[in-house]
């Protein structure tokens, strides 16, 4: 009898055989092996389940470009696109840091003030105190990290809500910015100096832009092939070679098209190159490192992450330090763009645009979903709207209203997406 009961329990716990086992098998693991047909089915499944990813923002960006180009043929001109690529950098860098905070489902309202304070520190040390520009930039970034550490410490250790502690930081660091700048309120940077050259330098050799496009394509192809080899060695389904070649070809097409447009004006802007490198590095950290997985884990389910051994407090503090550092880097580029640091640096709508870019680009306000490329896509949308309306002579008031509507639409899409995922059991 005991043996019979043991066999009965074993039968209950063993996986079902035959058709039942096939029903339990998740067909998504074979998507890569099935090539284009598998990806088509996977795409349909994701859309039905509310997993839209970057699709809405890419479609929106294409529509924006088509509309403004039809209204003014100068919109997609090499000069306008080149200027647009530089205009997105300062706020875009701040937005990259905001993405890390949003992945936890938190908010950083002090990023703009941290940006302005760091720019003020840079200007005072470099211009007033005669520091080497590299040392002054390093000090500015260190200032941003320190201010971010303060936010993270109060949030993670004391338990002050991130909204409150960063709101207090926004007020306090704005005052600190004014104090650092002194009575004049503005410090001009040398036009021929290193800081100003960050946004005024172009690699006008044709090979620079094309070489970067070729390098990006080659790295992507090599990484895809290497990743495939590792998956096969581990017995995990991998992409077909046709799939890798197609994806590489699409990336090459886009990269070389951008390189061609940039070469029609002044060449590859240094500021854009730095921004792209930062975005790529941040994306690598988020998706390919243990730290990045821990950030997503804390943002997805903090209690589950804690029970899995994740140091939640350390993750929280580090995320705000990253946000502070990126805000400082954004402040450096903002000061470089106008060759000065003033009371207006990091103020006005900078914070709102940085947060809006992250959300419009696809980062969820509820945490656990988003990438560094959200900052790039979101800033392209926002700056494209601003650039297109400026060409049409539309007032800034209308620009703000349109950008606000786009932001609201992005949040609505995110909310509907989460609702669809819950309905399909995927959230």
From TrEMBL:
Protein topology in the membrane: Multi-pass membrane protein
Keyword Cytoplasm: no
Transmembrane regions: 52-72, 84-104, 109-128, 134-156, 163-182, 202-223, 244-262, 268-285, 313-336, 348-366, 373-391, 397-416
Keyword DNA-binding applies: no
Residues covered by region (Disordered): 1-21
Domain of life the protein comes from: Bacteria
Record key words, sorted: Cell inner membrane, Cell membrane, Membrane, Sugar transport, Transmembrane, Transmembrane helix, Transport
A Pfam entry, by short name: BPD_transp_2
Subcellular location: Cell membrane
InterPro entries in the record: ABC_transp_permease (IPR001851)
Purpose: Part of the binding-protein-dependent transport system for D-xylose. Probably responsible for the translocation of the substrate across the membrane.
Protein name, per record: Xylose transport system permease protein XylH
Organism expressing this protein natively: Planomonospora alba
